Protein backbone atom coordinates (compact mmCIF):
# COMPACT_ATOMS: atom_id res chain seq x y z
CA UNK A 1 0.00 0.00 0.00
CA UNK A 2 1.46 3.31 -1.12
CA UNK A 3 -0.41 5.77 1.13
CA UNK A 4 0.32 6.42 4.79
CA UNK A 5 -2.52 7.81 6.92
CA UNK A 6 -1.28 9.75 9.92
CA UNK A 7 -3.15 11.20 12.87
CA UNK A 8 -1.78 13.16 15.80
CA UNK A 9 -2.83 15.71 18.37
CA UNK A 10 -1.36 17.75 21.16
CA UNK A 11 -2.94 20.00 23.75
CA UNK A 12 -0.71 23.05 23.94
CA UNK A 13 -1.45 26.76 24.14
CA UNK A 14 -1.44 28.44 20.72
CA UNK A 15 -1.76 32.20 20.33
CA UNK A 16 -0.66 32.70 16.70
CA UNK A 17 -3.44 30.80 14.98
CA UNK A 18 -3.92 32.76 11.71
CA UNK A 19 -0.18 32.82 10.96
CA UNK A 20 0.24 29.19 12.00
CA UNK A 21 -2.65 28.18 9.77
CA UNK A 22 -0.97 29.80 6.78
CA UNK A 23 2.36 28.09 7.46
CA UNK A 24 0.77 24.67 7.98
CA UNK A 25 -1.35 25.00 4.87
CA UNK A 26 1.58 26.07 2.69
CA UNK A 27 3.77 23.24 3.95
CA UNK A 28 1.09 20.57 3.48
CA UNK A 29 0.21 21.86 0.03
CA UNK A 30 3.87 21.85 -1.05
CA UNK A 31 4.10 18.19 0.00
CA UNK A 32 0.84 17.24 -1.75
CA UNK A 33 -0.75 16.09 1.52
CA UNK A 34 -4.51 15.71 1.91
CA UNK A 35 -6.62 15.68 5.05
CA UNK A 36 -7.61 18.03 7.85
CA UNK A 37 -5.60 20.05 10.36
CA UNK A 38 -7.50 21.66 13.24
CA UNK A 39 -5.95 24.51 15.19
CA UNK A 40 -7.40 26.05 18.35
CA UNK A 41 -6.15 27.98 21.37
CA UNK A 42 -5.87 24.61 23.17
CA UNK A 43 -3.75 22.84 20.54
CA UNK A 44 -3.54 20.94 17.25
CA UNK A 45 -5.38 17.92 15.86
CA UNK A 46 -4.38 16.56 12.45
CA UNK A 47 -5.30 13.78 10.07
CA UNK A 48 -3.17 13.64 6.93
CA UNK A 49 -2.56 11.22 4.09
CA UNK A 50 0.32 11.09 1.63
CA UNK A 51 3.55 9.36 0.76
CA UNK A 52 5.98 8.14 3.41
CA UNK A 53 8.57 10.76 2.43
CA UNK A 54 6.05 13.61 2.38
CA UNK A 55 4.65 12.81 5.82
CA UNK A 56 8.12 12.36 7.29
CA UNK A 57 9.10 15.75 5.87
CA UNK A 58 5.99 17.43 7.27
CA UNK A 59 6.40 15.99 10.75
CA UNK A 60 10.09 16.92 10.82
CA UNK A 61 9.10 20.47 9.89
CA UNK A 62 6.29 20.61 12.48
CA UNK A 63 8.54 19.33 15.26
CA UNK A 64 10.97 22.16 14.63
CA UNK A 65 8.41 24.26 16.52
CA UNK A 66 9.20 23.62 20.22
CA UNK A 67 5.47 23.45 20.98
CA UNK A 68 5.16 20.33 18.82
CA UNK A 69 8.59 18.77 19.38
CA UNK A 70 7.17 15.79 21.27
CA UNK A 71 3.95 15.26 19.33
CA UNK A 72 3.28 11.55 18.80
CA UNK A 73 1.70 10.01 15.72
CA UNK A 74 -0.38 6.98 14.78
CA UNK A 75 -0.28 5.51 11.29
CA UNK A 76 -2.15 3.10 9.06
CA UNK A 77 -1.80 2.18 5.36
CA UNK A 78 -4.19 2.34 2.41
CA UNK A 79 -4.02 2.03 -1.37
CA UNK A 80 -5.38 5.52 -1.98
CA UNK A 81 -5.68 8.74 0.00
CA UNK A 82 -8.96 8.62 1.96
CA UNK A 83 -9.36 12.41 1.91
CA UNK A 84 -10.49 14.42 -1.10
CA UNK A 85 -8.69 17.65 -0.29
CA UNK A 86 -6.58 19.55 2.21
CA UNK A 87 -8.29 21.60 4.93
CA UNK A 88 -6.70 23.72 7.65
CA UNK A 89 -9.26 25.10 10.10
CA UNK A 90 -9.32 27.42 13.08
CA UNK A 91 -11.58 26.18 15.86
CA UNK A 92 -12.61 27.08 19.40
CA UNK A 93 -11.59 23.59 20.57
CA UNK A 94 -9.80 20.79 18.76
CA UNK A 95 -12.38 18.44 20.27
CA UNK A 96 -15.56 20.09 21.49
CA UNK A 97 -16.82 19.39 25.00
CA UNK A 98 -17.94 22.94 25.87
CA UNK A 99 -16.52 22.61 29.36
CA UNK A 100 -14.25 25.65 29.67
CA UNK A 101 -13.02 24.65 33.13
CA UNK A 102 -11.16 21.73 31.56
CA UNK A 103 -7.74 22.83 30.35
CA UNK A 104 -5.92 19.81 28.90
CA UNK A 105 -2.92 21.92 27.92
CA UNK A 106 -2.36 22.61 31.62
CA UNK A 107 -1.68 18.95 32.37
CA UNK A 108 -2.70 15.51 31.19
CA UNK A 109 -4.84 13.01 33.01
CA UNK A 110 -3.03 9.80 34.02
CA UNK A 111 -2.67 7.43 31.07
CA UNK A 112 -2.40 3.69 30.66
CA UNK A 113 -0.58 2.28 27.65
CA UNK A 114 -1.91 -0.44 25.37
CA UNK A 115 0.20 -3.25 26.82
CA UNK A 116 -0.89 -2.44 30.36
CA UNK A 117 -4.56 -2.31 29.43
CA UNK A 118 -4.25 -5.68 27.67
CA UNK A 119 -2.66 -7.15 30.79
CA UNK A 120 -5.45 -5.78 32.97
CA UNK A 121 -8.05 -7.22 30.61
CA UNK A 122 -6.25 -10.57 30.56
CA UNK A 123 -6.26 -10.79 34.35
CA UNK A 124 -9.67 -9.19 34.87
CA UNK A 125 -8.51 -6.36 37.17
CA UNK A 126 -5.79 -3.75 37.52
CA UNK A 127 -2.44 -4.43 39.20
CA UNK A 128 -3.89 -3.57 42.62
CA UNK A 129 -6.73 -6.05 42.21
CA UNK A 130 -9.33 -3.33 41.62
CA UNK A 131 -12.25 -4.02 39.26
CA UNK A 132 -11.68 -2.55 35.78
CA UNK A 133 -14.32 -0.46 34.02
CA UNK A 134 -13.91 0.67 30.39
CA UNK A 135 -15.72 3.79 29.20
CA UNK A 136 -16.30 4.31 25.46
CA UNK A 137 -16.37 8.06 24.80
CA UNK A 138 -17.24 7.81 21.09
CA UNK A 139 -20.55 8.44 19.36
CA UNK A 140 -23.18 5.72 18.91
CA UNK A 141 -22.55 5.09 15.21
CA UNK A 142 -18.85 4.58 15.97
CA UNK A 143 -19.46 2.02 18.69
CA UNK A 144 -21.78 0.16 16.31
CA UNK A 145 -18.72 -0.68 14.18
CA UNK A 146 -16.70 -2.10 17.07
CA UNK A 147 -15.78 -1.73 20.72
CA UNK A 148 -14.61 -3.50 23.84
CA UNK A 149 -17.73 -5.59 24.49
CA UNK A 150 -17.65 -5.05 28.25
CA UNK A 151 -17.32 -1.26 27.98
CA UNK A 152 -19.88 1.27 29.19
CA UNK A 153 -21.46 2.69 26.02
CA UNK A 154 -23.89 5.54 26.61
CA UNK A 155 -24.94 5.60 22.94
CA UNK A 156 -23.83 9.21 22.75
CA UNK A 157 -25.28 11.33 19.94
CA UNK A 158 -22.35 13.71 20.44
CA UNK A 159 -19.35 14.08 22.74
CA UNK A 160 -20.92 17.05 24.54
CA UNK A 161 -23.54 14.66 25.98
CA UNK A 162 -20.92 12.73 27.96
CA UNK A 163 -20.76 14.87 31.15
CA UNK A 164 -24.51 14.56 31.77
CA UNK A 165 -24.42 10.81 31.12
CA UNK A 166 -21.61 10.34 33.64
CA UNK A 167 -23.32 12.55 36.24
CA UNK A 168 -26.50 10.46 36.00
CA UNK A 169 -24.53 7.22 36.41
CA UNK A 170 -21.87 8.27 38.88
CA UNK A 171 -22.37 5.39 41.32
CA UNK A 172 -21.22 2.93 38.66
CA UNK A 173 -17.63 4.23 38.91
CA UNK A 174 -17.17 4.05 42.67
CA UNK A 175 -14.34 1.78 43.80
CA UNK A 176 -13.27 0.87 40.26
CA UNK A 177 -10.34 1.67 38.00
CA UNK A 178 -11.77 3.50 35.00
CA UNK A 179 -10.11 3.62 31.57
CA UNK A 180 -11.71 5.94 29.03
CA UNK A 181 -10.99 5.24 25.37
CA UNK A 182 -11.66 6.71 21.94
CA UNK A 183 -10.29 6.45 18.41
CA UNK A 184 -7.00 8.31 18.71
CA UNK A 185 -6.78 9.55 22.29
CA UNK A 186 -8.11 13.08 22.14
CA UNK A 187 -11.68 12.53 23.37
CA UNK A 188 -10.68 10.10 26.11
CA UNK A 189 -8.10 12.59 27.36
CA UNK A 190 -10.73 15.29 27.83
CA UNK A 191 -13.15 12.75 29.29
CA UNK A 192 -10.62 11.57 31.88
CA UNK A 193 -9.90 15.16 32.90
CA UNK A 194 -13.62 15.87 33.28
CA UNK A 195 -14.11 12.79 35.46
CA UNK A 196 -11.11 13.71 37.60
CA UNK A 197 -12.44 17.25 38.05
CA UNK A 198 -15.83 15.77 39.01
CA UNK A 199 -14.15 13.91 41.88
CA UNK A 200 -14.13 10.42 40.36
CA UNK A 201 -10.97 8.61 41.43
CA UNK A 202 -8.69 6.13 39.65
CA UNK A 203 -9.46 7.40 36.15
CA UNK A 204 -7.06 6.80 33.25
CA UNK A 205 -7.09 7.51 29.54
CA UNK A 206 -6.00 4.92 26.99
CA UNK A 207 -2.83 6.48 25.64
CA UNK A 208 -3.07 6.79 21.87
CA UNK A 209 -6.63 5.49 21.76
CA UNK A 210 -7.90 2.45 19.91
CA UNK A 211 -5.61 2.93 16.93
CA UNK A 212 -2.49 2.71 19.12
CA UNK A 213 -4.05 -0.24 20.94
CA UNK A 214 -4.51 -2.02 17.61
CA UNK A 215 -0.94 -1.22 16.61
CA UNK A 216 0.61 -2.55 19.81
CA UNK A 217 -1.67 -5.45 20.76
CA UNK A 218 -3.36 -6.55 17.54
CA UNK A 219 -6.75 -5.69 19.02
CA UNK A 220 -6.86 -8.24 21.85
CA UNK A 221 -10.28 -8.27 23.60
CA UNK A 222 -11.73 -5.93 20.93
CA UNK A 223 -14.75 -6.92 18.83
CA UNK A 224 -15.30 -5.52 15.32
CA UNK A 225 -13.50 -2.67 13.62
CA UNK A 226 -12.77 0.95 14.43
CA UNK A 227 -14.74 3.71 12.72
CA UNK A 228 -12.62 6.40 11.06
CA UNK A 229 -13.87 9.66 9.56
CA UNK A 230 -12.53 9.26 6.05
CA UNK A 231 -13.18 7.28 2.90
CA UNK A 232 -11.90 4.06 4.48
CA UNK A 233 -14.96 4.00 6.74
CA UNK A 234 -13.39 1.66 9.28
CA UNK A 235 -10.17 -0.22 9.93
CA UNK A 236 -9.59 -3.60 11.51
CA UNK A 237 -7.19 -4.56 14.29
CA UNK A 238 -4.50 -4.92 11.60
CA UNK A 239 -5.12 -1.22 10.75
CA UNK A 240 -6.13 -2.13 7.19
CA UNK A 241 -9.41 -0.82 5.73
CA UNK A 242 -12.32 -3.15 6.35
CA UNK A 243 -14.30 -4.51 3.38
CA UNK A 244 -17.45 -2.53 2.71
CA UNK A 245 -19.69 -5.40 3.86
CA UNK A 246 -18.33 -4.99 7.39
CA UNK A 247 -19.05 -1.27 7.56
CA UNK A 248 -22.16 0.69 8.49
CA UNK A 249 -23.58 3.64 6.53
CA UNK A 250 -22.69 7.12 7.74
CA UNK A 251 -25.41 8.84 9.77
CA UNK A 252 -27.41 11.63 8.19
CA UNK A 253 -25.32 14.75 7.70
CA UNK A 254 -21.94 12.99 7.69
CA UNK A 255 -19.74 12.83 4.59
CA UNK A 256 -16.92 10.42 3.91
CA UNK A 257 -13.57 12.04 3.35
CA UNK A 258 -14.27 14.89 5.79
CA UNK A 259 -12.78 14.24 9.18
CA UNK A 260 -15.51 14.82 11.75
CA UNK A 261 -13.61 14.04 14.92
CA UNK A 262 -13.00 17.71 15.55
CA UNK A 263 -16.16 17.74 17.57
CA UNK A 264 -18.07 20.94 16.72
CA UNK A 265 -20.01 22.13 13.69
CA UNK A 266 -18.20 23.60 10.70
CA UNK A 267 -21.14 24.98 8.77
CA UNK A 268 -20.69 28.43 7.22
CA UNK A 269 -22.93 31.42 7.78
CA UNK A 270 -25.04 30.42 4.80
CA UNK A 271 -25.85 27.01 6.33
CA UNK A 272 -28.07 26.52 9.44
CA UNK A 273 -25.91 25.65 12.43
CA UNK A 274 -26.78 22.76 14.73
CA UNK A 275 -24.60 23.53 17.73
CA UNK A 276 -25.48 20.26 19.49
CA UNK A 277 -23.73 18.00 16.98
CA UNK A 278 -20.23 16.95 18.01
CA UNK A 279 -18.94 15.25 14.89
CA UNK A 280 -20.84 16.76 12.03
CA UNK A 281 -18.46 18.12 9.39
CA UNK A 282 -18.90 21.19 7.26
CA UNK A 283 -21.38 21.08 4.42
CA UNK A 284 -19.62 24.00 2.76
CA UNK A 285 -16.04 23.65 1.44
CA UNK A 286 -15.62 27.27 0.39
CA UNK A 287 -13.33 28.52 3.14
CA UNK A 288 -15.75 31.33 4.13
CA UNK A 289 -15.99 32.85 7.59
CA UNK A 290 -17.42 30.41 10.13
CA UNK A 291 -20.32 31.28 12.45
CA UNK A 292 -18.21 32.23 15.47
CA UNK A 293 -15.52 34.10 13.57
CA UNK A 294 -13.43 31.01 12.89
CA UNK A 295 -11.98 30.39 9.45
CA UNK A 296 -11.17 27.37 7.39
CA UNK A 297 -8.71 27.07 4.54
CA UNK A 298 -9.21 24.42 1.87
CA UNK A 299 -7.33 23.24 -1.17
From TrEMBL:
Q: Which GO terms describe its molecular function?
A: oxidoreductase activity, acting on paired donors, with incorporation or reduction of molecular oxygen
The record, for Pfam families, names:
Rhodanese (PF00581), UPF0176_N (PF17773)
Enzyme class name:
oxidoreductase
GO terms under biological process: tRNA modification
SUPFAM superfamilies for the chain: Acylphosphatase/BLUF domain-like (SSF54975), Rhodanese/Cell cycle control phosphatase (SSF52821)
Q: Which InterPro entries match?
A: Acylphosphatase-like_dom_sf, Rhodanese-like_dom, Rhodanese-like_dom_sf, TrhO, TRHO_N
Reactions catalysed: uridine(34) in tRNA + AH2 + O2 = 5-hydroxyuridine(34) in tRNA + A + H2O
Q: Where is the composition biased (Polar residues)?
A: 271-285
Chain spans, region Disordered: 254-299
Q: Which UniProt keywords apply?
A: Oxidoreductase, tRNA processing
Residue ranges annotated for the Rhodanese domain, each copy included? 128-222
**EC no.?**
1.14.-.-
Cited NCBIfam families: PRK05320.1 (NF003703)
Family label: Belongs to the TrhO family.
The record's function comment reads:
Catalyzes oxygen-dependent 5-hydroxyuridine (ho5U) modification at position 34 in tRNAs.
Q: Which protein, by its recorded name, is this? A: tRNA uridine(34) hydroxylase
Amino acid sequence: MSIVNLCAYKFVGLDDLPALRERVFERCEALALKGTVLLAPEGINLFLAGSRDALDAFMAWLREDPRFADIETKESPSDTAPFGRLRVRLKKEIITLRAPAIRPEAGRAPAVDAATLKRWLDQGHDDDGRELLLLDTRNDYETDVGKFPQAVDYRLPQFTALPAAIAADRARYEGKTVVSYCTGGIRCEKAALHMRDAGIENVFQLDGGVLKYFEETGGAHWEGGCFVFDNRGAVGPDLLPLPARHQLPLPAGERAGVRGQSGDDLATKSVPLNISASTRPSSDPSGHLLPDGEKEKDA
